[in-house]
Amino acid sequence: MPGLEALQSVQYVTVKGKRFAVLDAEDWEALIEWLETLEDLEIARQAVAALGKAGGDRERAGWLKWEEARRELG
Known about the structure:
Layout: H1 3-8, E1 11-15, E2 18-22, H2 25-53, H3 66-73
Antiparallel strand pairs: 1-2
């Protein structure tokens, strides 16, 4: 279920005067996945914009070479 649909499936309850949003666990997981995808897309947009500003030069854009990235992750 896409994130917007998960948001629309929210039900509300009031307990001791406080209002809570209740989601099915599967809808919650779909919402988290959707938000993570949006975050990843924003990171990719920023990277492409930085590459454009650097005239296509990956090093000037701050991109690591694959070997360097592997070392940092490894």
